[in-house]
C-alpha cells in the first residue's frame, strides 16, 4: 500500500506542478497581450494628438456655412467674408503652406475654386476673418492670393445654383518648398497641381451651402 500511496502522491504532485506551470504560462500570455494592446492604444492616442488639424470659429465641419461667408453677387446676398482659420501640428519639414477652397459639386465639370492662397510662411498658424480680401492687407507678408474662378484674386464665397447643397472644402496643405514656382497669373488648377506635387500633408474643413 505504501508503494501505491507513493505513486499516487507522485502523480498528484506532477499534476499539481503541471497545472501551476500551465497557469503561469496562461497568465504570462494574458499580461503580454494586455501590454501589447496598451502599447497600440498609446501609439494611436499619440498619433491622434499630433494630427495636422485645421479649425475655424466660422465654419463647423459638415454644417451649413453662415451668410457672413456667402458670396455677395450672382443672386447671392452674403457678406463674402473669408472665414478665420487656425491650424496646428503640421508635418515635420514644412517650409510653407497653401490654402485651397473648392466646390467639387459645381456644375462646371471641374468644380469651382473659391480661394487660392500660397507661400504662407511656415511659422504662421492662423488667418483672421476677412484675410481673403486683398484690399484689407490681413495676409502675412509674402502670401500670394491667386485668382478664384470668379476671376478676381482672393476669397469668393459659396453661391451655388438653386438645388441640393454643395460641399465646400477648405484645405490647408503643408508644403516641402518655401515658395511655389508658378506664374503670377497662374490659374487655380495649375496652382493646385503644384500644391499636390509638393504636399507633405493636408488638413481640411468641409462646410455645406445650398439655396
Form type: globular
Outline the biggest β-sheet: 5 strands, antiparallel
Low-pLDDT ranges: 6-11, 18-22, 42-47
Helix content: 25-40%
Percent range for β-strand residues: 15-25%
Radius of gyration: 29 Å
| Helical segment count | 2
| Spatial strand sequence of the major β-sheet | 6-4-3-7-8
Secondary structure class reads: alpha+beta
* Integer average pLDDT: 86
H-E string: HEEEEEEEHE
CATH superfamily descriptor of the largest domain:
PEBP-like
Q: Could you say what the CATH topology of the largest domain is called?
A: Phosphatidylethanolamine-binding Protein
Going by CATH, the architecture of the largest domain would be Alpha-Beta Complex
**Under the CATH scheme, which class of the largest domain?**
Alpha Beta
The end-to-end distance, rounded to whole angstroms, is 98 Å
- Please give the domain count: 2
What do these coordinates show?
- The N and C termini lie far apart (98 Å).
- Mean pLDDT is 86; it is low at 6-11, 18-22 and 42-47.
- The protein is α+β, with helices and mostly antiparallel strands.
- The strands form two sheets. The protein has a five-stranded antiparallel beta sheet with strand order 6-4-3-7-8, covered by helices on one side. It has a three-stranded antiparallel beta sheet with strand order 1-2-5, with no helix packed on it.
- The longest helix is centred in the N-terminal third of the chain and has 48 residues, at 2-49.
- The protein has two domains: 1-49; 53-209, Phosphatidylethanolamine-binding Protein, CATH 3.90.280.10.
- The chain contains two helices and eight strands; from the N terminus they run αβββββββαβ.
Amino acid at each position: 500500500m505504501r508503494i501505491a500511496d507513493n505513486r499516487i502522491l507522485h502523480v498528484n504532485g506532477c499534476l499539481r506542478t503541471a497545472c501551476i506551470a500551465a497557469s503561469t504560462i496562461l497568465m504570462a500570455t494574458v499580461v503580454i497581450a494586455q501590454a501589447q494592446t496598451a502599447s497600440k492604444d498609446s501609439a494611436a492616442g499619440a498619433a491622434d494628438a499630433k494630427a495636422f488639424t485645421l479649425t475655424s470659429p466660422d465654419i463647423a465641419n459638415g454644417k451649413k456655412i453662415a451668410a457672413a461667408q456667402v458670396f455677395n453677387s450672382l443672386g447671392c446676398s452674403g457678406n463674402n467674408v473669408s472665414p478665420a482659420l487656425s491650424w496646428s501640428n503640421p508635418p515635420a519639414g514644412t517650409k510653407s503652406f497653401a490654402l485651397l477652397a473648392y466646390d467639387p459639386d459645381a456644375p462646371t465639370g471641374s468644380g469651382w475654386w473659391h480661394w487660392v492662397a500660397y507661400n504662407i510662411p511656415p511659422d504662421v498658424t492662423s488667418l483672421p476673418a476677412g484675410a481673403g480680401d486683398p484690399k484689407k492687407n490681413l495676409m502675412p507678408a509674402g502670401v500670394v492670393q491667386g485668382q478664384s474662378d470668379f476671376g478676381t484674386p482672393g476669397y469668393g464665397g459659396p453661391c451655388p445654383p438653386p438645388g441640393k447643397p454643395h460641399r465646400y472644402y477648405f484645405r490647408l496643405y503643408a508644403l516641402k518648398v518655401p515658395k511655389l514656382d508658378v506664374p503670377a497669373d497662374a490659374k487655380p488648377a495649375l496652382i493646385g497641381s503644384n500644391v499636390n506635387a509638393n504636399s507633405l500633408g493636408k488638413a481640411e474643413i468641409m462646410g455645406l451651402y445650398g439655396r
